[in-house]
Amino acid sequence: MSALDNREETTCHGDPAHCEHISRLLARISDKWTLLVVRTLGPGPRRFNALRRDIGEISQKVLASTLRDLEENGFVSRTVTPTTPPQVEYALTDLGRDLLTPVKALAEWVVANAARMDAAKADYAERRAAG
After folding, report:
1. What is the Cα–Cα distance from 104 to 64, expressed in whole angstroms?
2. Architecture of domain 31-130 in CATH?
3. Which of 62, 40, 42 is nearest to 53 (CA)?
4. If the chain, 131 residues long, is cut into consecutive pieces of 10 residues, what is the mean pLDDT of each piece?
5. Where are the domains of the chain?
6. Cβ(91)–Cβ(76) below 8 Å
């Protein structure tokens, strides 16, 4: 059994249902926008347009869809203040704040290893070009 197989078995506790659940959850949260929304909401609640400005190049439709998915899965709460016009604020739930910990760790890992990944890409491109 390889080290990877051993890690996978430990993570899934030998139960294929656990592996399936982990796989579904990772697919749900690992897209670019979900991680950026969670990270952006980390310091505190944001209104929709402020969130959109803070994230950058995200369309209104994609942000709305991402927020709905995060709310559906318990990571984000949506609070509507009955004013004219209504104000909507998004915030991380306790579950979302728990998710923020590995998101920050992953971001730190990327920053720490960016040069190594760039070097690997350059090496790969050089090998491909050489034939």
Report:
1. 23
2. Orthogonal Bundle (1.10)
3. 40
4. 46 76 79 90 96 94 96 95 92 95 88 96 94 81
5. 31-130
6. yes
The pLDDT assigned to 58 comes to 94
Residue 106 three-state SS = helix
Could you give the C-alpha distances from 17 to 9, 11, 14, 23, in angstroms and in order?
Answer: 12, 12, 9, 10
pLDDT of residue 7: 47
Q: Distance between CA 34 and CA 30 in Å, rounded? A: 7
What are the φ and ψ backbone dihedral angles of 77, each rounded to 5 degrees?
A: -105, 150
59, two tokens: 């369309």
Return the structure tokens found at 97.
């704040």
Q: Are 67 and 52 in contact (CB under 8 A)?
A: no
Q: What is the length of the chain?
A: 131
Distance from C-alpha of 22 to C-alpha of 126, rounded to nearest angstrom? 36
Sign (positive/negative) of CA torsion 69, 73, 77, 83?
positive
| Sheet with 46-47: strands ordered across | 46-47, 87-92, 76-81
Q: How far is CA 23 from CA 17, 18, 46, in A?
A: 10, 8, 29
